[in-house]
């Protein structure tokens, strides 16, 4: 890392992995198979359209195995959300250990968030499930948490003198999250989402940050960074 707090060309985002608590290996594998199967069914059919029988067929498990871990489909969805949130905190912690300034952290964290949307089966399934009215409360909470974390990162950037004078961290955070969510909803697949997010930052960084920080970012090669590897996301979640 350079003394300016930039990543010196290291733009790789951490790949999300399991964050579930330690348990006996067989029990852990079964629970992970159920969560992956639920995520797949939610992603394909939505929360209401995913029957428990479909989830069990996908997981190759029995009702007894399901009810040993989860009392209902909603409990399964809530456990999936907990896993997604806990594994996200592992990603944030790993980025934090790089010693970057707040704006670089925000860019890399957003990259990681988008990459999980693109390729992490748990996140993809959870995201679609939270669009269901029965889980709306959890979806609203998730969105608020993302906005809050983005605003905190921008407040840190402001305190470090990295933001333009007229930028309000709270309003900027709402704009970033709203644009990212909009890009996700209209993107034609992962490659298009990645491209749209690059274009978003090309527009936002020059008006959000100081001239000095913008120049550093433009010279960094960030726009030409490697795209996330979908294979790594799949293999990281093998039960």
Question: Can you walk me through this structure?
Answer:
Keywords: DNA-binding, Transcription, Transcription regulation. It holds the Pfam family TetR_N. This is TetR/AcrR family transcriptional regulator. InterPro entries: Homeodomain-like_sf (IPR009057), HTH_TetR (IPR001647), Tet_transcr_reg_TetR-rel_C_sf (IPR036271). Residues 28-88 form the HTH tetR-type domain. The protein is an all-alpha fold. The chain has a domain at 80-235: Tetracycline Repressor, domain 2. It contains 11 helices and no strands. It has helices spanning 25-49, 52-59, 63-69, 73-96, 102-119, 121-129, 136-159, 169-186, 190-208, 211-219, 230-235. Helix 1 crosses helix 4 and helix 5 (102-119) crosses helix 6. The longest helix is centred in the N-terminal third of the chain and has 25 residues, at 25-49. The chain is elongated.
């Amino acid at each position: 890392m350079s003394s300016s707090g930039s990543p010196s060309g290291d733009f790789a985002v951490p790949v999300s992995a399991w964050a579930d608590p330690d348990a006996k290996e067989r029990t852990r594998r079964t629970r992970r198979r159920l969560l992956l199967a639920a995520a797949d069914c939610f992603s394909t059919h939505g929360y209401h359209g995913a029957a428990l029988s479909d989830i069990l067929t996908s997981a190759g498990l029995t009702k007894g195995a399901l009810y040993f871990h989860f009392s209902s489909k909603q409990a399964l969805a809530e456990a999936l959300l907990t896993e997604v949130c806990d594994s996200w905190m592992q990603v944030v912690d790993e980025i934090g250990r790089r010693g970057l300034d707040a704006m670089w952290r925000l860019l890399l964290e957003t990259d990681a968030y988008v990459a999980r949307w693109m390729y992490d089966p748990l996140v993809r399934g959870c995201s679609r499930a939270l669009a269901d009215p029965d889980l709306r409360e959890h979806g609203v909470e998730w969105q608020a948490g993302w906005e809050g974390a983005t605003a905190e990162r921008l407040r840190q950037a402001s305190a470090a003198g990295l933001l333009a004078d007229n930028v309000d961290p709270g309003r900027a955070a709402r704009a970033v999250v709203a644009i990212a969510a909009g890009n996700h909803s209209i993107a034609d697949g992962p490659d298009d989402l990645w491209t749209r997010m690059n274009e978003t930052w090309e527009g936002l960084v020059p008006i959000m940050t100081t001239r000095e920080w913008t120049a550093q970012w433009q010279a960094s090669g960030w726009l030409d960074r490697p795209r996330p590897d979908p294979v790594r996301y799949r293999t990281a979640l093998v039960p």
